[in-house]
Design goal:
Elements: E1 2-3, E2 10-11, E3 19-24, H1 29-33, H2 37-43, E4 49-55, E5 60-64, E6 67-71, E7 76-82, E8 88-92, E9 96-101, H3 107-115
Antiparallel strand pairs: 1-2, 3-9, 4-7, 5-6, 7-8, 8-9
């Protein structure tokens, strides 16, 4: 099933169909203010495919006197960068960056790709 390495297993055929690592941070407003051109230039060789999606975030609760009211949040830009084969994807928003792969072979390979971001 996998080749053993002294540090970590390396999967020939991974039992995992999708692996994701997401790092959340306080909002960086400059990410939403303009498209992340400099970011794309740094990762374009490994992630040449680009799309942008509008993500609807959950509503927030606001106190209105003694009552609580739900208010919608505005949609958030999700900048998506994918590998040529579509098996790896980086997603960047003002609140998080995430790396997803459907071709997981082991932590070292996964971390190398995520480190590009």
């Amino acid at each position: 099933m996998f080749q053993s390495d002294a540090l970590a297993p390396k999967f020939a055929r991974s039992p995992l169909t999708n692996v994701i690592c997401q790092l959340r941070f306080s909002p960086i407003l400059s990410i939403d203010a303009k498209e992340p051109v400099a970011f794309q230039e740094k990762i374009r060789e490994q992630f040449p495919l680009y799309t942008v999606r509008k993500e609807q975030t959950p509503p927030r609760m606001v106190n209105v006197g003694p009552q609580v009211k739900m208010e919608p949040n505005p949609p958030m830009n999700n900048y998506c960068f994918a590998s040529a084969d579509g098996k790896c994807q980086l997603s960047l928003t003002k609140n998080y960056i995430a790396f997803t792969t459907s071709a997981y072979t082991g932590w070292e390979d996964f971390a190398k790709m995520f480190d590009l971001a």
